[in-house]
Amino acid sequence: MNHTTEATSWSVAVDRAACIGTGVCVSTSPEHLEIRDGKAAARATETGPAQYLLDAADMCPMAAITVTETATGRVLAPEE
Ligand code: SF4
Questions:
Q1: Which of 14, 16, 22, 43, when mutated, tests ligand 1's pocket best, judged by the most ligand atoms within 8 Å of its CB?
Q2: Residue 21 near ligand 1, beta carbon < 6 Å
Q3: What is the pTM (predicted TM-score) of this model?
Q4: Residue 64: CB within 6 Å of ligand 1?
Q5: Is position 33 within any domain?
Q6: Is residue 5 part of a domain?
């Protein structure tokens, strides 16, 4: 068995040039995202796993939010 003591960390990136400020993502995942100067921004660039953060990235009409596994860089959302 492979037990790891390191908590999984996710990275959140918002492409503010692509964001059109709908606020959909903020309603879905207010813990992780906020509107700053009319566009979405990550409250923190790294966070623990949360399904609703993936939902927010999947819902964005501009695919402006990318969630990756910090350790590997694997893209978790949006889905291709
Ligand atoms: S859902 Fe997408 S376009 Fe809308 S505010 Fe969030 S990042 Fe911007």
A1: 22
A2: yes
A3: 0.90
A4: yes
A5: yes
A6: no
77 in a structural domain = no
Give the pLDDT confidence of 18-75 residue by residue, as tens digits. Answer: 999 999 999 999 999 999 999 999 999 999 999 999 999 999 999 999 999 999 999 9
Under 8 Å between Cβ of 10 and 31: no
Among protein residues, the one with the nearest Cα to ligand 1's atom 2 is 60
35, part of any domain:
yes
Enclosing domain of residue 32: 10-71
Distance CA 58, CA 2 (A): 31
